[in-house]
Amino acid sequence: MTKTALVVSAHSADFVWRAGGAIALHAAKGFRVTVICLSFGERGESAKLWRLPGMTLDRVKSERQAEAAAAAKHLNVHDIQFWDLGDYPMELTREHLFRMVDVYRTIRPSFVMTHSRQDPYNFDHPMTNEFAQHARVIAQAHGHNPEQKVIGAPQVYLYEPHQTERSSWNPNVLMSIDSVWPQKRAAIECMAGQEHLWDYYTRVAMNRGNQTARNSEQTCTYGEAYEAVFPHVVESLA
């Protein structure tokens, strides 16, 4: 059976900065990775585009979608979906929640990646975290659409917020992304509307690579860090 993974991204660039390495790594291992972009980040994360003469909301959305779609190709994303639910503020309804439940039950992910629980600089991010985790729990409920098969208990990994020290984010998983760093950097460079973040997230990857090397016996230049929400069930501690 083909393994799958689910990434729930508040805005169209978030999955690139924060989880691009993990996506590319698992795609290389044969995982089918589905990315859900709840919004394009058209209002709050597209300042460069809004400075262009004659810019409109629809043009911003179109540009952001094209950037994210190009980035997804570099990362070998199996399926990227743009739900266009708005940003600043994002408005999530019961209908959207049940739509996400159906995604869980359809793709049956081995693991999920999404935002941190807190982020005082961007309220769309913790809202997306709650949305993704709430849908996961409902997808496990036998009484919700009982004609559908419930899912198991996929681990949820919270990717790195922009201001870690203000977001109560506690990374407990480090991962080398050296083998796919060229793919992630290429994906990063697709996000032309936020060019000011290209080198910032390269430095983040280098810092996490240093930490990955210090906590293992491997040589590592680039890495990503995550906070696992649930305990890992293991058969051995070695």
From TrEMBL:
InterPro entries: GlcNAc_PI_deacetylase-related, LmbE-like_dom_sf. One of its GO terms (molecular function) is hydrolase activity, acting on carbon-nitrogen (but not peptide) bonds, in linear amides. Pfam families: PIG-L. This is 4-oxalomesaconate hydratase.
